[in-house]
Amino acid sequence: xxxxxxxxxxxxxxxxxxxxxxxxxxxxxxxxxxxxxxxxxxxxxxxxxxxxxxxxxxxxxxxxxxxxxxxxxxxxxxxxxxxxxxxxxxxxxxxxxxxxxxxxxxxxxxxxxxxxxxxxxxxxxxxxxxxxxxxxxxxxxxxxxxxxxxxxxxxxxxxxxxxxxxxxxxxxxxxxxxxxxxxxxxxxxxxxxxxxxxxxxxxxxxxxxxxxxxxxxxxxxxxxxxxxxxxxxxxxxxxxxxxxxxxxxxxxxxxxxxxxxxxxxxxxxxxxxxxxxxxxxxxxxxxxxxxxxxxxxxxxxxxxxxxxxxxxxxxxxxxxxxxxxxxxxxxxxxxxxxxxxxxxxxxxxxxxxxxxxxxxxxxxxxxxxxxxxxxxxxxxxxxxxxxxxxxxxxxxxxxxxxxxxxxxxxxxxxxxxxxxxxxxxxxxxxxxxxxxxxxxxxxxxxxxxxxxxxxxxxxxxxxxxxxxxxxxxxxxxxxxxxxxxxxxxxxxxxxxxxx
Amino acid sequence: xxxxxxxxxxxxxxxxxxxxxxxxxxxxxxxxxxxxxxxxxxxxxxxxxxxxxxxxxxxxxxxxxxxxxxxxxxxxxxxxxxxxxxxxxxxxxxxxxxxxxxxxxxxxxxxxxxxxxxxxxxxxxxxxxxxxxxxxxxxxxxxxxxxxxxxxxxxxxxxxxxxxxxxxxxxxxxxxxxxxxxxxxxxxxxxxxxxxxxxxxxxxxxxxxxxxxxxxxxxxxxxxxxxxxxxxxxxxxxxxxxxxxxxxxxxxxxxxxxxxxxxxxxxxxxxxxxxxxxxxxxxxxxxxxxxxxxxxxxxxxxxxxxxxxxxxxxxxxxxxxxxxxxxxxxxxxxxxxxxxxxxxxxxxxxxxxxxxxxxxxxxxxxxxxxxxxxxxxxxxxxxxxxxxxxxxxxxxxxxxxxxxxxxxxxxxxxxxxxxxxxxxxxxxxxxxxxxxxxxxxxxxxxxxxxxxxxxxxxxxxxxxxxxxxxxxxxxxxxxxxxxxxxxxxxxxxxxxxxx
Amino acid sequence: xxxxxxxxxxxxxxxxxxxxxxxxxxxxxxxxxxxxxxxxxxxxxxxxxxxxxxxxxxxxxxxxxxxxxxxxxxxxxxxxxxxxxxxxxxxxxxxxxxxxxxxxxxxxxxxxxxxxxxxxxxxxxxxxxxxxxxxxxxxxxxxxxxxxxxxxxxxxxxxxxxxxxxxxxxxxxxxxxxxxxxxxxxxxxxxxxxxxxxxxxxxxxxxxxxxxxxxxxxxxxxxxxxxxxxxxxxxxxxxxxxxxxxxxxxxxxxxxxxxxxxxxxxxxxxxxxxxxxxxxxxxxxxxxxxxxxxxxxxxxxxxxxxxxxxxxxxxxxxxxxxxxxxxxxxxxxxxxxxxxxxxxxxxxxxxxxxxxxxxxxxxxxxxxxxxxxxxxxxxxxxxxxxxxxxxxxxxxxxxxxxxxxxxxxxxxxxxxxxxxxxxxxxxxxxxxxxxxxxxxxxxxxxxxxxxxxxxxxxxxxxxxxxxxxxxxxxxxxxxxxxxxxxxxxxxxxxxxxxx
Amino acid sequence: xxxxxxxxxxxxxxxxxxxxxxxxxxxxxxxxxxxxxxxxxxxxxxxxxxxxxxxxxxxxxxxxxxxxxxxxxxxxxxxxxxxxxxxxxxxxxxxxxxxxxxxxxxxxxxxxxxxxxxxxxxxxxxxxxxxxxxxxxxxxxxxxxxxxxxxxxxxxxxxxxxxxxxxxxxxxxxxxxxxxxxxxxxxxxxxxxxxxxxxxxxxxxxxxxxxxxxxxxxxxxxxxxxxxxxxxxxxxxxxxxxxxxxxxxxxxxxxxxxxxxxxxxxxxxxxxxxxxxxxxxxxxxxxxxxxxxxxxxxxxxxxxxxxxxxxxxxxxxxxxxxxxxxxxxxxxxxxxxxxxxxxxxxxxxxxxxxxxxxxxxxxxxxxxxxxxxxxxxxxxxxxxxxxxxxxxxxxxxxxxxxxxxxxxxxxxxxxxxxxxxxxxxxxxxxxxxxxxxxxxxxxxxxxxxxxxxxxxxxxxxxxxxxxxxxxxxxxxxxxxxxxxxxxxxxxxxxxxxxx
Lengths: 499, 499, 499, 499
Fold this sequence. Notes:
4 copies of one chain form a homotetramer. Chain A is 39% helix and 13% strand.
C-alpha cells in the first residue's frame, strides 16, 4: 500500500471535527474517517472526541497493528501532517493524565514482596484510564472483593513430619506439560498499561513455563504475541463470537494455522452483555466533559452509564450463543479443543461435561467480578460441583480464576479439584508496574508462595493436593442448596434430567 | 369564595403571635387562625412558631391546594398583606437552610451512575428538613440498613450459553400491564423535596409505564397528580384510615370516582402508631430552639422526641384497625381491590390470603425501617412464606419494598416470588436531585440494571425468574423458625388453625 | 457526740502525712486516722494520698453519712480546721478534673432523644473518676459490648391489623404491682456522679412506679434513699455478704425493719472476687502518680492493676458463699424473699429454682460485663433455660440486666420469658447528665420506646408478649450445647441429677 | 587461645570489603572472615554489608558466646583495632534506629495493666529490626490475628454460689510440678530485644515456677541461660535438626548432660521451611539499600523476599524429617522425652500418640502464624482432637500456643483439654519493654488474670476445668469436618487405618 506524500497543515485538519467531515492524525498520517464513523465498534462519539487532531496516543494502545488497513479504504489516507504545524497539546494532556511518578521513584521489582505491592506501584505508574479499566468491576464490586475473601475463609491443614525437601509445582493442562498450575487469564488491551503489551506477558510466561490465554481484544496480533515463544510454550485463544460470524470464522482459521502455539479455543460465556463497571464509565464521562459540545451526536442515545472502555470493546459481540447451535458451528471451523469460560453453576458444569470431548475444560469464573455483581466466586461453583456432580471432575478439566492474590489461594483451589488457576488483573498490574519484568515478578512470587505452601502442607506434587489439606467448612455452609434444601435429597436428579 | 381586599401592614400582623390571637400570612393573604389552632393535625405549637409572619414557604410544600378552604371559615381571611411593609426575612432564612449548592454545580442527571450518587446530589440540594424527613428511620436505623444489606447476602446464579439478545422486563400487576416490575411506594410530602412534587413523579413513571402508589399525605391532590397521566398508566391510593371515619369515607368516594386511574386502595398497616425517627425529631427540636420562648404552650405535654414531620403527619390516624371490622367497612365504601401494606410475618400473609379476593395483594414492608427498628426485611418475610405457607403466593400477589438500590436487588426479590418491587426513598431522592428528570434517571438506571441482570442470568422474561437463579442460603439460615424450631415440624399447622 | 472546738492550722495538719501519723480534714474537722489506716476497706494507701489536707471532696460522695462515727473513736476528732489557713488547692484540682462543661452548655433533658445521647452528656459532665468507674468493664470490654449487640441480633415480628390504641406496660414483680417492667439495678456510689445520689434515682422511679434495687455500696443510707418514697413504691436491698458476718446480719436486721419499702434481698453472686476493670484502675494509677513519693507504703504489695474504685469497694466481701450454707444463714436473718443476682448458666438457674420458695427470682446478669470478660449475656442464659429447663420459668421469676439501650431490647427480653429488665449504667448516666431529672428522662424514654414497640407488635399487655414476637434464631445458634451437642440428646438429665 | 596484640588502624580495615578480602571488627579485634563467607548460615551478603567496620553491635545480640571460636581458625584473628582510629558511626546509626524513647519516658512496669500495653511499650523501646522480627508473621497475618480472635469467640460459663476463696493455678507437666499452666515457648534471639536475653526470661520464670523452652536459635548458650535456675525449675530444649546431623547430635549430647535442667527435647515440626514474613524481609531490604553497591554478590540469586532475620536463621535446617526415620535417630541420641511442636491436625495428633511413650506431648501450634498463613489456630486442632480422636488426650499431654493475650484465653484452652499454654511473643515483648522485669510483669498479669477467671468460674484447681465451663459452639461450627462431612460418620476410621 503506497502512502500519499502530500503535506497537510494542522490548521486544515482542525476544521474537520463533525460527523459530516471527520479527520484524524495517526502515526503522522492524516485520515478522513467520515465514512467509517457509523461502523466503529466503539461508537462514533469516541472518534469525534479526537477529531481534528493527532490521536495516535489514544489510538495506539488499543488497536493491534493492521487495524487501520483492515478498516479504511486506501483513499481515506489524505497525506502526511506537516509536523511544523502540529502543536502537541494531546501528548501533554496525556502525560498529565499519568499520575506523575518519575522513573527514579519506581522501586526495583525484587523489592516488591506480594501482589498487593505490585498493584500499588502499577496504580501509580499507569495512565488513569488504563487503571480504571483494569481495576473496575460491576456495581458495588461485591463479587470482586468476595472472589478474594472466600479464599481467606478456607483454612489450610498442614501435615507435619514429612520430608518436604523436594517440591514440584509443574502440572499438565489438556495433556500439555506446564511449569506452573497458574495461567494468565484472557484480559483485553494490555498495551493500555504498558508498551510491552501481551508480548511482554508472553515472554514472562516463557520463563516459568506458564500458559497464557490471549484475549480476543488483545492490543497486539496473535502472531506478534507468540513470535518469541519458546518450544513447548502453551497458548489459548479467547473467542468472543462476533455478530458478523464471518469475522469470527476468519479469526478461527488464523488461529488454526498457529496450532503449534495455540492449543485450544477459549469461548467466553460469562459476559454475553457487558456488566456495569462504573469506575470505567466514570472515566469516560470525565473525558467527555472536556470535549467541545459541538462534537456531540444526537443520534447516539444516552444509555445509563454511557460506556467506558469495557462497553466499547463489546460492540459487535454476539449475545445469542447456545449449546445447541454454537458448539456445532465451532466444530465446523476448528478442531482445537474447546474450553468454556464463565461457568458459574454446577448445572452448567454438568452440561459442559456432557459435551466432552469437544469441550475439554471449563473455567469457573465470574469474569473477575466485572459482569454480574454478587455472582458467585469460582470456589462456590467448585464446591457445588463436588457436592452435586463430582463426576464432572473426572470427565473434563476444571480451571478457575478470580481473586487470586497468594500462593495459598492457588493451593486451596487445587485442593478442591481445580486443575489450574488463572490470574487476570495480577498479570496486567505486573505489566503496569514494570512491563515484562513486572509480570515475571508476579509469577515468581506466586510460584514461590505456592511451593512454600505445598511444602508446609507436606506435599511434593500438585497431584497430591486433596480436600483433606483444607478446611472449607465455613464456605460450604453458604453454597447453593436448592429450594428448601431439596437439592441435597434427590431433587437434583430431577433437575439434571431436564437440563 | 370572595376575597377581602383590605390591606394589612406587617407591623399589625406581627402583634398576633399567641394562642389568644394568632395571625399568619399565606399566599399574600392574612388569616386569623386562632380558632383553628387546637384542631391543627400537627399541633398548635408548629403554627405558633410561624405566627405573625409570612408562612407560605413553610406551609406550601406540605399542604395540598384546597386545604385552607377546607379548614378555615371564610371570615378567617382578614385581608391582603401590604407588600411594601413585608420584610422577607423568612424567605432568606429558608434559603440559607438549603445547603447552598448553586445551579451550575448540579451535575447532569445522565452523569449519575447509580442510586447512591443520586442520593448524594439530593442530599446537597434538598432543604435540610426535607432531607431529614426522607432519610430518617427509627431508633438506630438497623432495619433501614439491613433492608439493603440482606440483598447483598443473596448471591446470583448466572446460567450461560443461553441466547440473551432479547429481554423484556414488563409484567402485570393485578392484571394490569406495567412497563416495569418496579413501582413507586407511597411516600409523603414530595413537594418538600422539589416543587415538581408527586405530579413530577407521575410524569416520570409515565415514561416507563411504572406504577405509582400515591401517599395519603401527598402534598398535591390526587386529581392534580394524575392530571397528565398517559392511557393505561396505573396508580394506587394509599389510605391511612382517620379516626374521623367520615373523612376517610369522603376520600374513598373521591378515589372511586377516578377509577380509570386508581386501580386499588393500599391500606397501610405497618405504622398504626408513629415510629421513633430521631433524625426527623432532632430537626424539629433545632427549629424550636430559635423560636421566642413566649410562644410555647404549656398545654402541650413534652413527649419524648416531641415529633418531627413524621409525627405531625400521624395526627388523627386511626390505630384501631382490625381484620374483622376494617375490611368490611372498606367493602362498604369501595369495590376497588385492596392491597395490604406492611405485612411482616408469614402468619399475617397467610391471613391476608384468607381475605382474597377482596384483598388482592400484600406489600411486605417494614415501612422503610421507619416504624419498628429491628423489624424484619421483606426478604425474610418472603422466605418465611416460601417455607411455611407457599400457597399464599398462588392466592394473592406479593409485592415488597425497602432497601432496593440495584437492579440485582429487584431481580433477587422477583426470584423469591415477589411480583413487584417498590421504591420509596429512591424516588424522593431522584425528585430532590433533579425533579421529574431525577426520578426518570432513577427509573432508567434501575430498569437498565434489572435487564442487564436478567440477561446475565440467561433470562428473557420476568416470569422465568426462579429461586434456582439465586443462592439465599445465608439468609435462610436466619429466618424465623418458631420456638425451638418446631415451626418446621408441624407446629405451624396448630398455629395456623388459631389465626 | 460533742465536738472539740479547738482550731488547728493547715500548716500543722500538713505535717501528718505518714502511716506513723496521719491527719485529714473532713467537713471542717481535723481527724487523726492513724489507727484506722490498716482497717480501711480501700487500703491505707488511698488515705495516705489524701493525708495532710482537706479530703472532703474525695471522701463525701463515696461514704454514706454516719460512716465516720461508725469507724472512728470520738478522740480521733482533734478539732476544727482554721479556715483562714486553708488554701483550697484540692477543690481547684477537683474542679479541673471535671471536663469543663459550663452550665449553660447543658442541653435540656427533653432534647435528649435516646440513652446514648444521655450518656454523652453525662460523659462530659461527670468527674472523670466517676465516669471511669461507671463506664469501665473487665478486660477487653467484650461482654459489655456483646450484652447490647446480642439484642441487635434478635429481630422483631410485628403483627398487624390489630387494634393497638391501648397499651399498658405495667406488670407485677414478686406479686407487687410496678408501673414498668424496667427496674434500676444495684450500682454503687451514685453520689460520685451527681449529688442527688440514690435518693434522686428513687424520686425518679417514684414518678414511673419503677422498682429500684439499692446497692450494698450506696453512697447514702437506705433510710435516706427511701425517705421520700411514694406508697407502693418497691425497693430491693442488694447484699454483698461481708467476711465479718455480724456486719451483714446487722444490715439485714436494719432492712427487715423497713419491710414496707424493701420487698426482697438481692444476693449478688456474679462478682465473688472483683473483675479486672482496667479503665477504673488506670484512673487510680493516674492519681497515684501525682502523690508525693513519701506517702507510699512498702507494706502493701503491688497487685496487678493496683485497684480502682471497684477494687476498693470489694474489700471485706466474702468469697465463700454456697448454696448449702449461705441460704440457710440468710433464712435465719431475714424472711424477705431472696433474689439471686448473677446467674449465668441454665445449671445455676435450675439449682436456684430448686430453692424456691425461699428463692423467688434470679437476675440473669454478668455484672454489666464488669466481672468476667466473655461471660455470656443474659439473653444466652435465657435461651439456655428455654431450651434445657423451661420449667424454671414457671417456678421462679427470671429477671435480666445488662446491655439495655432501647425499648426494643426490653421487649425482646420479655418475649423470651424475662419478667423484668434492669438498667444499671443508664440510670447512673441519667443521674450524671441531669440528676433526678436525667434519671426521669431515661425512664421516660425507655417507657415510651417500650410501649411504641408493644403497639407496633400488636400487643396491649406485657403478658401477651411471646417468643413468636421475635426471631432469635441467629442467637440460638450460638448458645451452649454441651460437649459435642449431647446436651440436646439427653445428657442434660445426667448432668441435672448431679447438681 | 592466645590473642594477637598487633594494632590495626580503621583505615586499613576499611579497605577489605569484598568477597576477595573481607575484614570485620568484633569486640575490639580485627578478623579476616574471607574464608568463612561461603559457609555463613545467613549468607555472605549480610557479612559483606558489615565489612570494613566494627560490626559488634549487629553481631552480638544474635550470636551466642563461643560462636566465633567455633567457626574461625585462630589465624583469622589479625590483631586489635586501634581505638583512636575508629569512628563510631555504626553505633550512632544503630542508636538512631531505635525509636528514640528516653529512659524517663519508660512507664513503671506495674503501671502496665495488660499484655497489649506491654507490647506497646516494647514497640517503642525495641530496635526496629528486632521488633519487625518478633512482630512479623506470614503473608497477610491472618493466622496471627485469628489465633487470638478465636479465643474471643469462645464464651465462658461462670458457675456461681461456690466458695472461691482458694485458687491454685499450679499443675504438672510431664510429671514435673510447675507453678503455672503457662510456659514460655521457644523463640529465637532474645538479646535482639534486650540485653537480658534468654537468661533474663529464665530468671523471670523462676519467680513463678514457670517452664521455659529454649530456642535452638537462642542468643545465649543453654549453659548461660540455665545458670541461675532455681531448684526444680523446668526447661525444655527446642531442636531444629540440622542438615549436618553431627551438629545436632553434638547439641543433644550437650543437653543430655544438663538433664537436671532440661526435661525434654522439643522437636519443631511446623516450620520445615521458612514462612514468608514480609515485615521482617522488608526490614532486611531497607538495610540493604543503604549498602554500597560494590558489595553486592552476583553469585547469590535474588529469591522472592530476599530473607529477613527469619530466613537467615533457617539456613542449614533440615526439611527431611519423618516419623519413621527421625524418631529412631532421636532415640539413639537422647533418652529425654520428646515433645512434638507444630501439630495442626487431629491426624498428626493421632499419629503422635501412637509414638508414646517416646513422644510424651505435642504442642498444637501454627508457629505463631509465622509459617503458613491461614493455618488453623491451636483451638481448632484441639476441638478436632476432642471430636475425632479424644483418646489422644489420655495417651499424651497436649499443649498449645499462639494468640494468648489474657488469662481467660489460658483458661479456655485448659477447659478444652490443653495441659499447658505457651507464650512466645508476649515473653519477648515483656523482655523488650523492661528486660527481666518486663517478663515478670507479663507472667504476673497472666497468672493473676488466670486465677481471677478460675475463681469467677467457681473453680479452685486447674484439673477441675472442663468443657462445661465454656461455650465453644461458634468455633466448633467451623472446624474441619472431612470431605462432605463424612469424617463424622465413620470415614475417619478408614483414614485412621491408612495413617
